[in-house]
Amino acid sequence: MTNKIRVVITNKQKKIKIPTGMRMLVRRCCNAVLKLEKFEGSAEVSVTFVDNEEIHKLNKQYRNIDSATDVLSFPLGENNEYDVDPETGAKMLGDVVISMEKAKDQAALYGHSIQREVAYLTAHSVLHLLGYDHETGLEKVHMREKEELVMEQLGLPASSSYVIDEE
User: Fold this and answer.
1) How confident is the model over 23-71, as pLDDT tens digits?
2) Domain boundaries along the sequence of the chain
3) Is the pLDDT of residue 160 over 70?
4) How far is it between the farthest Cα atoms of the chain?
5) Would you state the pLDDT for residue 167?
6) Which of 99, 103, 132 has its CA nearest to residue 120?
7) CATH number, domain 5-153, options 2.30.39.10, 3.40.50.720, 3.40.50.1400, 3.40.390.30
8) Quick one: residue 64, left, alpha or beta (phi over 0 = left, psi -120 to 50 = alpha)?
């Protein structure tokens, strides 16, 4: 039996046109993260594209942060324990919510395509769904390494301008 990854993608915003191939890229990204993490079994992930106004509301409601952000992760599992979809037997990993406006702005800021930015945000968020965090320096480094590995596998390596000089 092959492991099946179901990625449900919903566009709930009208401000940024979703480029052709973006949905396939998001699916490939989810698959690449789960493969990298040697995830066992079938899985289901929900990805929703929203605008800044909507992600601002969600950020305030769920994290008590009164501003828009680029991506939010809503994990459904804890300690590798997940709810299972009774119809498919798939582990329901959770929801990824991406602000397409923020993705567009950040892509311009970092000098890469909106495709790379959305793929990066997807990888980042799916790692959160799998229990990764970036509260400490070391966790942050591990997470960034995994994100970049996925980007390389997707043929979207970081451009040199991606690292912001913090001096």
Assistant:
1) 999 999 999 999 999 998 999 999 999 999 999 999 999 999 999 999 9
2) 5-153
3) no
4) 53
5) 40
6) 103
7) 3.40.390.30
8) left
